[in-house]
Amino acid sequence: MINVLTGRSHSPGMSRDFIKNYTVAELEEFFLSIGEKRYRSRQLFNWMYERNIDSFDLMTDFSKELRRNLQEKFILMPLVLSERLISGIDGTEKFLFKTMDGHYIESVLIKNDGSDDGRLTVCISSQAGCAMGCLFCETAKQGFHRNLETAEILEQLCQVRRLTCVRNNNVVFMGMGEPFMNYENVLKSADIMNYSFGFHISVRKITISTSGITSAIERFIDEKRPYNLAISLNDTEPEKRIKNMPVEKKFPFQRIASMLGKKFPASRNRLTIEYVMRKDNISENDAKRLKNIFRYSRIKLNLITLNTGSHNFEIPGQEEIDSFIRMLEIMNVPITVRNSFGQDISGACGQLSGRMKNYSSD
Known about the structure:
Elements: E1 17-18, H1 24-33, H2 40-50, H3 64-73, E2 74-75, E3 79-86, E4 93-99, E5 104-111, E6 120-123, E7 127-129, E8 144-147, H4 150-164, E9 170-173, H5 183-194, E10 206-210, H6 214-222, E11 228-232, H7 238-244, H8 247-250, H9 253-263, E12 271-277, H10 284-293, E13 299-305, H11 318-328, E14 335-338, H12 351-354
Parallel strand pairs: 1-2, 6-9, 9-10, 10-11, 11-12, 12-13, 13-14
Antiparallel strand pairs: 3-4, 4-5, 5-6, 7-8
């Protein structure tokens, strides 16, 4: 069956398309094609994102015929909730969703992430599984299954808001998968999150994280994308980073740093360097190398405590972490420390879905 909006075929085995895959402009074309007014597109966006309804039948300012037409052509909710866990320690909530083709993905609601009092952050996934192979990452152990569609990315936010009755004010693409290996769908979903008649989340409250896909980072900057950018470093020695993060072999971090030195000062974006602290990467020499790598005025260093998991890395104690922070304090950049949230509910991305006995494989 041919897609009524783009002329492309639907996903195999599916007779209806995901309506949240489309922008306002694309839906305007659809409404005009069936004899409706252009403004119906914005009305629809308001229902889907602002009012966050879960059925076309609730769109009361649409005629019954129009609602029936939408129901016949589109799927409103592409994900089904499989499990929801709430931490008794810090109130973090973990959501396991199942896609219509049987893959599991995870989202996390973090209440007050330690940087701004009262901040409500939703961490969302961009892929089912991941191909990057980072040794400390639970998602990597599942391998890569496929990119998530724009609708599946947006639906995570819709369902978390609906299930918790909480309107988050911050979104991070730091869940399962490498966002920049699904560049088009991730940026499209971020744009829809920012729409004033949709979620209306500020560009300064949307952060996209990458393990270091140099070409995509450069494209992101060249396209003047307004969202915050976070890059995972996690090791200061190239040899160790190659072992723990194979992306280093194809995209050396020194090359990324060189490119940022030329392009990032002119960029309007905020850049965060993420550094997951392990016992073996918080030495005095690591601190010295970090200081030498980053000399940009608009960088923030985000230190993250390693989550427990099936990896073989040792988690540092508080005294070791405090010592590392003191060694970094002379850096001319803001430093924040993010504690591990949801330790009692498998808070790290990939932990919950990885335990599913019937996890789909391609």
